[in-house]
C-alpha cells in the first residue's frame, strides 16, 4: 500500500464528522479516537482525488487520479471496521495506465473515551492485488502484504469542534530487496467544525521515510518527505454527504533538484503542488441515545457494610431496583434529566437524593442508610407454681427476641421492639405455658406466669351400677371426690367418660342406659368444680363387655363407667 493510501486510512470519526475517503467518519487523512457506535454504516460511493504535478526536469505532461469506493461498519460502541479498494489512473504524455490498487482494511479501537477526550489505536493492512508495476508516474502497489499502526488522540473543546492527533508508522515492502528503506513515519492533525449542513474542516499531514533517522542513505533514492496543509467543506444532506476538499504541498518531492531514482510508494517522483478531491457518500449513524444508566452501592452508615435488599425508586418514572449481596444496584434506560431517588430498607431510615442522568452515560452514586432508632418496650414478671405459689426457675422463649432465664426467685425482665410476640415458658417438671401479647413503644408490661406441674400417668377408679340403674352409689361417690381432687390439681387434663351396660335388656335400651350412666358421672364432676369442657361423654351399650354376660358376676362387672385421660 502506498503512502497516500496509508494516509487516507487515517480517519476522523464520532458525532462531529462525515464519511472520509475510506467510509469511516472523518476528514481526508486524520482519524478521531472517539467511537462511532454499534450499527454505524458508511458507504463511500465515489471519491475522486486528482494530483497537480510539476517538473521542470521532465516537461512531459502528467496526470494522476485516484477513485475510491469502500465500506465501514460499527461492530460495537468502540470498534469500527473499514475496507476500501482504489482505482488508479496515470497519464504520461500520450500513454495511459489504470488498475485496481491494493485492498486496504483496518479497524479502529477506542481504548479510553470520556465526554471530551478519547484515546485509541488503528491497526491496518494493505493486501496486494498485483498492480505494483502498472503505473506510469508512480507504483500502483507494493506487491507484498504490508501493515501499520496509528495511535489516536481526540479532544472536544466544545460541542461543535473536534480536534484529532495521529502518530504512527507503516511497514511497507515486505521483501528483502526493499526492507526498511521504505518504512514510513506518519503524523497528522485535523479540526472539524460542525455548523449544521455546511461543515468546514482543516488538516495538516506529514510522512517521513524512517530510514532518514536510522541510516545515512541517499535521500534521492525515494524522494522528499511530503508535508501538506489541507481542508474543505462537508455538505450534510441527511444521510447523503457531498465533500469538496484539497491540499497544498509545502514540501518538494525532488531532492537536490533531482527526481527520485525509484518509485517506492504511490506518490509520483515529481513535485506536487496541490491535490483536489470530490466525493459522494452515504452515512447511517446509530440511533441517538437519549437514556442513561444509574449504578450505585448502598451501605450501612455506621459499619460501612453493603446492604442487601434495599429498594431504590425513581417516583416520576416508576423505575425500581433492589440491591444485591454487595449492596449494588442498577437502573437502566433512564431518560436524561434530573431526578429524585428514594432509597428504603426495612429497619433503616429512608433517604431521598438527586441524581443527574446524561444520555449514553453511567451516573455512579453511593447511598448510606442509618438504622432506625426504635424505642423498645420492657417486659417483666414472675414464674410461679400454680398450686403452691412458690417461684419456679424457668426458661422463656420469645419469638424474635431469644431465650431468657429467670432468676432464682422466678423473676425475669427483657426489652423488645414494638410488635406482637409469643412467649413460651418451660420448667422442669411442669407443663409448658404460652402467652401472646402486643407491645407498644416505651411500654412497661408485667406478665406473671403460673405453671402447672407435669401430669403423671393418671388412673381413675371404675364406677359400677345396679342393674337398669344410673344412680351413683355412696361408696363410688367417694371415689369420684378423689377424681375431682386429682383433676383440680391438674387443670390441663381432659378426660373421656365411657358408659357401659350388661346384656340384661334390649340392645337399644342398654345403649341409652350406658349414656345416662356416663352423664351422671359427668354431672357429679361438674358439681364438684370441674369445667364441663374438660369432660367428654360416650356410651357403648353392651358392645364392650369385660366379663361374660352369662353369669351374675359377669353382668355386675359390665355395668360400669370408666374414666380415661385424653390430654
From TrEMBL:
Keywords: Cell outer membrane, Membrane, Signal
GO MF term set: carbohydrate binding
Record's signal peptide: 1-17
Matches recorded under Pfam families: CarboxypepD_reg, OmpA
Cellular component terms per the entry's GO annotation: cell outer membrane
InterPro entries recorded: Bact_OuterMem_StrucFunc (IPR050330), Carb-bd-like_fold (IPR013784), CarboxyPept-like_regulatory (IPR008969), OMP_bac (IPR006664), OmpA-like (IPR006665), OmpA-like_sf (IPR036737)
Subcellular location: Cell outer membrane
Presence of the UniProt keyword Oxidoreductase in the record: no
All residue ranges annotated as the OmpA-like domain in the record: 452-567
Stored CDD domains: OmpA_C-like
PANTHER family the record matches: LIPOPROTEIN YIAD-RELATED (PTHR30329:SF21), STATOR ELEMENT OF FLAGELLAR MOTOR COMPLEX (PTHR30329)
Annotated protein name in UniProt: PEGA domain-containing protein
